[in-house]
Amino acid sequence: MEKFDKVTGVAAPMPLINIDTDMIIPKLFLKTIKRSGLGKNLFDEMRYNEDGSEIPDFVLNQPAYRNAEIIVAGDNFGCGSSREHAPWALLDFGIRVVISTSFADIFFNNCFKNGILPIVLPQEDVDKLMDDAGRGANAMLTVDLENQVITGPDGGKIEFTVDAFKKHCLLNGLDDIGLTMQKSDAIDAFETQYGAAAPWV
Amino acid sequence: MTAKTLYDKIWDAHVISEDADGTSLLYIDRHLVHEVTSPQAFEGLRAAGRKVHAPDKTIAVPDHNVPTTLDRVDGVVKNEESRIQLDALDKNAKEFGLHYYPVNDVRQGVVHIIGPEQGWTLPGMTIVCGDSHTATHGAFGSLAHGIGTSEVEHVLATQTLIQAKSKNMKVEITGKLPAGVTAKDITMTVIGLTGTAGGTGYVIEYCGEAIRDLSMEGRMTVCNMAIEGGARAGLIAPDEKTFEYVKGRPHAPKGGQWEMAMESWKNLFSDEGAHFDKVLTIKAEDIAPAVTWGTSPEDVLPITGTVPSPEDFEGGKVDAVKRSLEYMGLTAGMKLTDIEIDTVFVGSCTNGRIEDIRAVADIVKGKKVKEGMRAIIVPGSGLVRAQAEEEGIAEILEDAGFEWRLAGCSMCLAMNPDKLDAGERCAATTNRNFEGRQGRGGRTHLVSPAMAAAAALTGHLTDVRDL
User: Fold this and answer.
1) Does B104 touch chain A (CB under 8 A)?
2) ipTM of this model?
3) Which of A82, A188, B151, B184 is an S-S bond match for B146, by CB 3.0 to 4.6 Å?
């Protein structure tokens, strides 16, 4: 996994609430057996007409946001399915941070496994950043994970919280399977004791 | 001793280790695998030279991509990408030695239907799958939830998951359900009240007389949609009905182990006085047959209602409703029963079990699907299909004009050839009415099987109690 330290980039405003995983990556792109290459189909049905031409109004098609690295979104971003294709598509497009008032549980977890930082902030902070994002390419945000702070284009700072273990894994690009395998003695001991108590499992 | 909730008890029984910040390593009893969210996980294992830690606790079945038309028995999968994905599961299941139900095995079906059917799903277990509707298995008093592909790989490699504990929420449905009101109407009504983010950060335990009165099939329908309310999982404490359902299933414990399991399972309930962080109580008598009008599962109203206006809402929901109404081609103020439909879909992990199919047959028996309508019924498993045929239900449905298909996820998410075209409008017994869910531009109204059957007869959304 790519390490996450600090990202300075354009933030795209997506104020719509309940942006679901079917919007982020429609099901026909789930037939892949790879993790890469999904960026071109990110938000496919919102981004392209049926003939494949771009829908000019869609935020990521606008010149200022074509290279966005941050999304500022409405409530409950990523609701719906468990498809990890959603963060894969975001990452492949170049998105490293999503900021919202709330995220769906599985999507939130999936982001951390892929070097994407989802940040939960109170409504007033999201409103402020949504405003900043509305100013386009001139409004870069800096997200500093180490210090847990977002710096706006006017120098204003917003602090955020993040789970300590998830932060550690993101900062170091750690594969948590490797970390868990270091506990294999504990897992084996648990299996022995549990297997005796509940042999039907 | 501190009073514990059912969730607390299952959690505590599976914690291998806990860090100072509460992050825990949780043991996983059953891992269900399907073709769409697993190929990258198996690739990851191979690349790292890792094995599947517990193949005997890992169950694989293809369901999302499989065609449901009868020509599939001849091995026909026309879509090249789908075929590659199905082949990948076949190869992975065999190479890693998993329990496997291939496409043309009669036991194949939607992963959340065959888990309980085969007795893999048992009370008190932890169950995961790379699919959000894993919540279904909570109906047995097992902690079951969806995970992403990275976590699928983690569970394959270690049979554990790194988790932070959720909060406890109780949803109590008191009293008796009125006639014509079903488990689907309960679960949709709850989401209508809590919203799709109302359960975020929680595990919901459903309880109360109306929940106790439900069959196991109905309880699975209720828990299935816990995820639509944002919850990590839904739970129902096991009781005699649960044990009766489980007993004798192929992978349920037998003999002495059954007795031992029963001793353990009888402790699976929330203790008197256990703390819930959030409580919602609904009177069953206040629940009506429910229908969605918008593009979020929280857009729920009783069938007697009218399409709302964006002005009825506040905050970000105002713009979301404007967008929904435009997408759905509806105008505020119209009666829900005036909404004409052209397609009926019965099936999915929400409502593809035998009881759901019986409910449709009861209503359409001796009648005809309205002319010009497309009505499809996709049983949740090969065994559900076989049972419906044995009971004579399949014949009733076909006589009424339903297409009687083979098992799979089908038009619930439209990854296989079954889908809506732009502008088509469907009464569906599924779980998501998102934009494009059943096909780009397709319009979905979520309903119970009985309500779907009623709509199939009349050609518009219909109050099943009026038939």
Assistant:
1) no
2) 0.95
3) A82
